[in-house]
Amino acid sequence: MKKQVVSLLLLAAAVMPMQAIEKEDVKPVKNVIVMIPDGTSLATVSIARWLQWYQDPSKPKLNIDPYLCGTVRTHSSNAPIGDSAPTTSCYMTGQPSRTGYVSTYPEQDADNDIYPTDPARAFQPLTTVLEAGKQLQGKAAGLVFTCEFPHATPADCSAHSYNRGKYEWIAPQMAHNDLDVVIGGGAGLLSEADEAYLKANGYHVYRNDLNGMRADKGDKMWALYGNREMDYDIDRDPAQQPSIEEMTRKAIEKLSKDPDGFFLMVEGSKVDWAAHGNDPVGMATDFLAFDRACGAALEFARQNGETAVVVLPDHGNSGISLGRRSCSGYDKLTKDQLFHQFSLYKLTAEGFAKKVNSVPNSEVQEVFRTYAGFELTDEELNALNNCKDYKNSPIPMEQRKQSDNSSMYSGNLTGLMAQIITSRTCFGFTTGGHTGEEVFLAAYHPQGTLPIGMNTNIELNEYLCNLFGLTHDNLEELTAANFVPHTQVFEGYDCQIVPSAEEKGSPSLVVKNKKNKKKQLTIAPFSNIVKAGKKGEEEIRLQSVVVYVDKNNTFYVPKQLADFLK
How is residue 106 annotated by DSSP? Predict the structure, then answer.
């Protein structure tokens, strides 16, 4: 009888739900590493894991697997499905926002808002965990990614805009936010002015200079590759572009020198891009590259003893599935039947598109034999030759036409390549856009205080704050201090918004003390530098950036700026 009671107690303990850690019980750490595989659905993780195991039987598990601890419900402020801008900015700020918004308070959307919003705060920049760590605790800060640097996820950590596409607003904010280490794509997007600012402030700046990055021993560095985004991991030339694992290790090496600790965000950016293109090769191989970066971060955290690592996607994408209705008997196929052909692919769809455009038409079949392990069918060759952006087609452009078989895509070349390589698998897609299912959550904490179970993206922001001994309220306090409408800060002063001399440039704000004409501020947007005096002879350096919003013709500035006019 006693054994039966013990068994029942053990059974009860086994089925009782684990309780998420209370915020007051989260043990603060010195360093926080947030790792985001953009647009990664759970099925993407499963397919990547199977591929790794199939290619290397000694690796049945991913680096993140021992640390999986729950799921995250991510969403926008007014919709269950979000894009990268509002979903990651919610992780960073604790405030859900709207599609396209980068760490910016959303406009109210009446009954559609999932949580109540304050219409008076629409378009206000929102302080991020990264910014709070720098300003309140002197933490070093870094970003690693494979997209271009002003893209949504890295921008969410260190910039503010209601339009994620406004790189001319976002890029200078990221340069002037004094991030210690930035490594990723976008060498062609760093302006000469922003590079000059960085160099004047002690940064080493490298554009497409892998050896330079590797040899750099300084504490502050920007290293950018590719005119815009970096190549997919499987497509990249390792002599020209580093892996995301190497970039992560380099960032940690530099940031960990700071005695106050650091915040690092690492994004596996192009899992999402491949998902948009329904390219399973890009999805799986870029996720595996990201998982190797996770391995590097987790290795450091375990050895360091003062570092927490949180791994979580921002949203799902593509509705990918391991199994497709049109693939007859897919549920009874062996691992060889499901993964052998897939394991032979040596390029992404984008890689195949570039490759066939780089060789004569007569060599196309050799490309597919070498890099895919099969030859194109006559139907596929016909679709390729009729593709509008295939450069080496024997068919003149004006004579190309849509394939007679409507199932064979013949528009965009990369899309055609994705369809061809997917047709040899049993993977399926429901969309080329984002999806709203929950995403995985993995975490490591040296003292084991983990965010387990299902957490919302708001709750994850609170957890990230708690890791630094902060709360979301601290972010709100900084927002209230640093991002105040200029009409409030400079009430009673003479404010003039001066249009830019450049056609598409942003205006500047000139503020004068009516009683003392020597007291004047000239405020340029998207910078942390303010000029004081009639001729701008004095330079004021802010701990945050000034943000201009054209929607309401408002500059968001720190409260303290008014003191310089007194």
Answer: P
d(CA 555, CA 522): 12
Cα angle value 82/87/93 (rounded, 5°): 145
Cα separation, 214 vs 194, in Å, equals 22
Buried b (16+ CB within 10 A) or exposed e, 224-253: bbbebbbbbbbbbeeeebbbbbbbbbbbbe
Token pair of 421, please? Answer: 């390589």
Q: Domains along the chain?
A: 29-320+432-482 (3.40.720.10), 322-428 (no CATH), 484-565 (3.30.457.10)
Query: Are residues 357 and 348 in contact, defined by beta-carbon separation less than 8 angstroms?
Result: no
Please give, one letter per residue, the 3-state secondary structure of 326-349. Answer: CCCCHHHCCHHHHHHHHHHCCCCH
What's the whole-model pTM score?
0.94
pLDDT per residue over 478-535, tens digit each? 999 999 999 999 999 999 999 988 877 899 999 999 888 789 999 999 999 999 998 8
One-letter amino acid for residue 564 of the chain = F
Please give the structure tokens belonging to residue 62.
Answer: 């991913």
- CA 387, 388, 394, 399 dihedral sign is positive
d(C-alpha 368, C-alpha 346), whole Å: 10
Which residues in 53-102 belong to E strands, given as ranges?
A: 68-73
Per-residue model confidence as pLDDT tens digits over 270-323: 999 999 999 999 999 999 999 999 999 999 999 999 999 999 999 999 999 999
- CA pair distance 83, 425, nearest whole angstrom: 28
- In tens, the pLDDT along 394-447 reads 999 999 887 555 455 556 899 999 999 999 999 999 999 999 999 999 999 999
Which of 459, 560, 547, 458 lies closest to 506 in space, CA to CA? 547
Which residue from 146, 192, 191, 142 is spatially nearest to 171, judged by alpha carbons?
A: 191
Q: Which residues pair with 519 in a beta bridge?
A: none
- What contacts 392, CB < 8 A, 6 or more positions away? 356, 357, 359, 360, 361, 364
Neighbour count for residue 300 (Cβ, 10 Å)? 19
Handedness of CA 143, 148, 149, 151 (dihedral sign): negative
Phi, psi dihedrals of residue 259, rounded to the nearest 5°: -65, -20
pLDDT of residue 534: 84
Q: At what angle do helices 457-467 and 472-482 cross, to 10 degrees?
A: 90
CA dihedral 155, 161, 163, 164 (to 10 degrees): 0
CA neighbours closer than 13 Å in the CB half-sphere of residue 135: 20
pLDDT, residue 16, reads 34
CA 83 to CA 77: how far, in whole Å?
11
Spatial distance between the Cα atoms of 379 and 175, rounded to a whole number of angstroms? 50
Is residue 483 a contact partner of residue 544, using CB atoms and an 8 Å limit? yes
CA torsion 80-82-85-88 (nearest 10°) is 60
